[in-house]
Amino acid sequence: xxxxxxxxxxxxxxxxxxxxxxxxxxxxxxxxxxxxxxxxxxxxxxxxxxxxxxxxxxxxxxxxxxxxxxxxxxxxxxxxxxxxxxxxxxxxxxxxxxxxxxxxxxxxxxxxxxxxxxxxxxxxxxxxxxxxxxxxxxxxxxxxxxxxxxxxxxxxxxxxxxxxxxxxxxxxxxxxxxxxxxxxxxxxxxxxxxxxxxxxxxxxxxxxxxxxxxxxxxxxxxxxxxxxxxxxxxxxxxxxxxxxxxxxxxxxxxxxxxxxxxxxxxxxxxxxxxxxxxxxxxxxxxxxxxxxxxxxxx
Length: 298
Ligand SMILES: Nc1ncnc2c1ncn2[C@@H]1O[C@H](COP(=O)(O)OP(=O)(O)OP(=O)(O)O)[C@@H](O)[C@H]1O
Prior knowledge:
By secondary structure, the protein is of the alpha/beta class. It has 2 domains: 2-210, P-loop containing nucleotide triphosphate hydrolases (Rossmann fold, 3-Layer(aba) Sandwich), CATH 3.40.50.300; 216-297. It has helices at 40-47, 90-101, 106-115, 119-122, 131-143, 161-176, 188-191, 212-217, 228-237, 255-264, 276-287, 293-297; strands at 2-11, 14-24, 29-33, 55-60, 75-78, 149-153, 180-185, 197-202, 205-211, 221-225, 242-245, 248-251, 269-274. The strands form 3 sheets. The protein has a 6-stranded mixed sheet, with helices on both faces. Belongs to the ABC transporter superfamily.
């Protein structure tokens, strides 16, 4: 279990994390989603005792991270895959980790195998690794101590599609065996397949949280008609919130209500379905619109 309670971080007059409260439960993968600069890494750094909170508290397995004895045996952390000594080989990094945590050296080979780094790759200096190889090494390091909790900041960054699929399988299996996973990303599609729960952050504040199923169910309905512009007017007259979707309209209402309105006005429906992940994406963009760099620049 990971908890954050009223977690706040200010840098001078700037509030990077603002009164954030959420829990990450065992047996689940929680996706921590937000645009660039939203405050995800700062939250995770506070969870791992690397950045002191200005206010609020955070615990891992019931204690502040710093109070955990031999924390690597309990919490696997990957915050920045490139923050490794570039002159060391992958194998050396894992061997050092195993020594510090008091683990059997055989664990190093097991982890290299698990993340798919070959004998020759593990003997190369990290300075010559691709970003994807660094991420794999970072995941191996996080899993080295067989922890119950994983805190991973954008681990899919730099992985190819096969690597992303592999990582999803790994995290799903880990959570299914009772592990607790907090996984950040700025891309919904990267985590929505594997996440059970979602916490959406924008400008340091939580803007939505809940199970993926709940959030998807509340993300509206996609409708396409032979005349979307005219039907959008009818929907708005009925007091419904309507936005343009890539294909048709996204409406904040149940399909039954929209279908009934279409029938009343003699509108021909071409498509009517729960918006699901497309709606979730739209919701994510709207909820975090104030925070997107493009908006700031505009
Ligand atoms: N040490 C620091 N001093 C001042 N400001 C900081 C510091 N660390 C982070 N910030 C600011 O806090 C905000 C949140 O940063 P953070 O790295 O947590 O965002 P993020 O959600 O992880 O973004 P990304 O997806 O781009 O990694 C940013 O505006 C950042 O510039």
